[in-house]
């Protein structure tokens, strides 16, 4: 069954998704009538168990947090702390340019340089970032990142072809194994493969990898997307070889935007305390007493390969958190989950009433939730 479903996904992604499922034999991928595919418990799972932990296939900081977030792992930066800037080569924009990218550590800076930041440093993303801030749109910045990954992978490939690919892994991916998880492991001394050290984008053509994620047909893409696409191409001008220009069509952009809208997670982290501000401790304590959501800081958005297959429930079996305070997501059993039960997360604020939840789900995801809570509340005439 698993193979039958996976055969619909891009071949380059299949191996990595299968690897993730092989590493988590308590998770099963199955069809869900009326909802495409979904993940299920293949064994009884105790409350509190971390069912899955995953580094993102693609992430980017929020347009509102560009100066306060590590651009590689989305960890919030301590106010006033030394950051490890990228984009400072002679070909990069000036230090006051919005394209100058802070990183939380030399490890993240080096990993980013190896994956995307060297290409990004040749571009000026200022106008695109500004437009995203004004429109409340974040996904064009993820697509800018994706284009930079593509450019660097192609350059690496060309170098390998010239140099005979000496010293590389069999699939040519080992030199690019500088994902968030391995950078994190370098910092914290943890096992590099805990969350898929290589990173799913280490293989295949990055621009087509998003095709694994589910898609909604848009009758008409929102008009601002054409403007965002134009600004993206403008920013990427220094990198645009004719072949890349052809690939980054408006149709590609709208397809990728639609997939990111349906599949991305908001990354909420906890901001570090400002040691020079004594009232910061009190504010943080008050926020944490008021609930972790208000203490959290939205540092960016991330798309995950396996976790994108989690369907929604207003009574989700999994909670989502970011225990490393970066974009590595953990999915924890919110209660006992019986073997065969679907693994779900809540796509919306589950504290809202029935009508608000239904409206948000219909508008953003195009379905009406029929989880037991919705059915019960609807029967009771709930709003
Ligand atoms: C992030 S994807 C989840 C994985 C998706 N089912 C797949 O096959 O790839 C989100 C989409 O799944 C579907 N979906 C998720 N939860 C659902 C639910 N409770 N009822 C109906 N459809 C759901 C909707 O089409 C939604 O836009």
UniProtKB/TrEMBL annotation:
Residue spans of biased composition, Low complexity class: 81-99, 173-199
Name of protein: SET domain-containing protein
Cellular component, GO annotation: nucleus
PANTHER family per record: EG:BACR7C10.4 PROTEIN, HISTONE-LYSINE N-METHYLTRANSFERASE SMYD
Organism: Chlorella variabilis
InterPro entries attached to this UniProt entry: H3K4_H4K5_MeTrfase (IPR050869), SET_dom (IPR001214), SET_dom_sf (IPR046341)
Boundaries of every SET domain copy: 25-348
Pfam families: SET
Residue ranges of the region described as Disordered: 81-104, 155-202
